[in-house]
Amino acid sequence: MNPKLKIPLAVLAILMALGYLMYTGISETGVYYRTVSEVLDQASIFDGQNLRISGEVVDGTIHYDQENLLLSFSVRDTENDQVTMRASYHGVMPDAFKEDVEVILEGTYSQYDNMFNATILLAKCPSKYEAEPKNLQQASQ
């Protein structure tokens, strides 16, 4: 083999191997980001797939078994309040998790029992913080 071709062929082989590793890594860990409405409208397509959804926790639906670290609740679509889905999460409940807070869930949807089984639960912090009441501001001066 020509010595001038060895280096370019070796570089090409390394680049191809890196490209393949990047492609398989992204395709295996890539997660679709969907709304509650999209998942429910296309339930048969998303059944059993890894998904990431966003929604708001529905009032009065939070049930937390602290002993077994099992959290169940309903999440509604942020644009259509009438569309809701049940969700479960096994783990410590985040401090910011409460009713009407926006959450991001990552896990799988089961069409059989219309349940989203989350492996990751993130509660968004409020984007606005309210100022202290005036009487507390004056007392601190």
Shape: elongated
Order of helices and strands: HEHHEEEEEEH
Q: How many individual helices?
A: 4
Report the biggest beta sheet as strand number plus sense, adding barrel if it closes.
Answer: 5 strands, mixed, barrel
Which structural class fits the helix and strand makeup?
alpha+beta
Cα gyration radius (Å):
23 Å
DSSP strand count: 7
Unreliable stretches covering 5 or more consecutive residues: none
Percent of residues in beta strands? 25-35%
Binned, the helix content reads 25-40%
Strand order of the largest sheet: 2-4-5-7-6
Terminal Cα span = 84 Å
Q: What number is the mean pLDDT?
A: 83
Explain the overall architecture.
There is one protein chain. 30% of the residues lie in helices and 33% in strands. It is of the alpha+beta class. A five-stranded mixed barrel has the order 2-4-5-7-6. The model has no long low-confidence stretch (mean pLDDT 83).
Task: Give the topology, please.
Layout: H1 3-29, E1 32-35, H2 36-41, H3 43-46, E2 50-57, E3 63-65, E4 70-76, E5 84-90, E6 102-110, E7 115-123, H4 134-139
Parallel strand pairs: 1-2, 5-7
Antiparallel strand pairs: 2-4, 2-6, 3-4, 4-5, 6-7
Question: Quick recap of the structure?
Answer:
The protein is built from four helices and seven strands; from the N terminus they run H-E-H-H-E-E-E-E-E-E-H.
What key phrases describe this protein's structure?
single chain; about 140 residues; alpha+beta; five-stranded mixed beta barrel
